[in-house]
Batch of 2 targets.
Target 1
Amino acid sequence: MISYFINLIKKYILYFYDKGLISDILISKKFKDKLKKREKNNFSAKLFLNKSLIYNKERGFWFLDLMPSKLELDIYYKNQYWSEQNEDKQDCINLRDIDHFLLMKKMVPDFFSGKKTILNFGSGHGGISYLFWINNHRVINIEPSLATNKFMDNLVVYNDIEKVNEKVDFIYGSHSLEHVRDLDNLEIIFNKILNNNGYIFFEVPNALVDSNGGSNGKIFPPHTYYFTKNYFNTMNFDVILNATYKEGSFPFIRLEDDKGEVIRYLGCKK
């Protein structure tokens, strides 16, 4: 009974606080933190969970409908996603970075024999950028968060790919493509900045796996696109690799039945 009245009081405090009838000085820091968490969760729910997915059969992906605006996504990433991610991110190279690097060296060994300009799209903690950099390649990081400020002395960093005004030899993206809001425009930019005979590599969640959402109709914030292997076959590049891989091992295990948790794609622009 006592807990019932306590919760009832909190409910009314919350109501009057939302109406601006209770001053901030009367609210404890602990209660304010709970309010902020509630506001973030509410914003996330409104932004992603009250929407639906549409399947583009010709291109092989699901996308969010209605797509959040750039302003809405900026607010979400700044106030929620990046703060949560930074708690788990460390300034280091992880096993996924190493696996990607070794795979690309194996698939196109001659390409990396000389100095290249590499664009890391959605670089995050930037692990693979270290590997490219220590192998004497020039690296451009595209990362809107503050995660790659540490690269300022050694690498080029932009918060938006539209700021890139030079040609690159290789475009790399790991779990970044599923976060974009305008895929068509991004593809135009990729084609514009990638040199002929340049390569493009992406790893994304496999939308045919239930735990990744997409094919089962589930939305996993903040993912806005949900890809199948078929999507990468529609890109205007010669396909070198388009396969699913099983996570949880090193190296990742390639599967032939399309049941791997992630899709890895490597293409060449001719």
Target 2
Amino acid sequence: MVTVRPKTRIELALTGIGETHARTRVTTRDVATIVDEPLARGGTNLGPSPTETLMASLIACTNVITQRIAARDGVAIGSLEVEAHARLDRRGAALEQEVEKPFSDIRLEIRVSTDATPEQLETIKADLTRFCPIAKVIRGSGVPIAEEWVVSPLAGG
């Protein structure tokens, strides 16, 4: 019997093409997206800004990793909603002065309906911190991420 082991390291390949001074078309695999600035900053508002894209990545990673942990542990997730709030010092992006840590702090509100016991929920929270690569990079840069979990029971459970 042959055991197939998944790759432990992969290479990500993305391409960005500057369509205007503020809008970039980013492609990976067979998927394209737009990263853009709002109208107020000279963009065309066709997509999230680069900093909003970072926060979107954090939200998406929080969802994916939480769902994977729950599935691994046999925990049902009925709904999962993540809201991110971040304080950004724009002076660096505005070319006014170098800013060592553009984000001073990030707060996530994670609303979930689940059948998890309190112990299972604590495992999910701890493992999310251990395994979400986007959060690890952000925390590794010295930016704290506070998580507020709002948990409700599964409907009918």
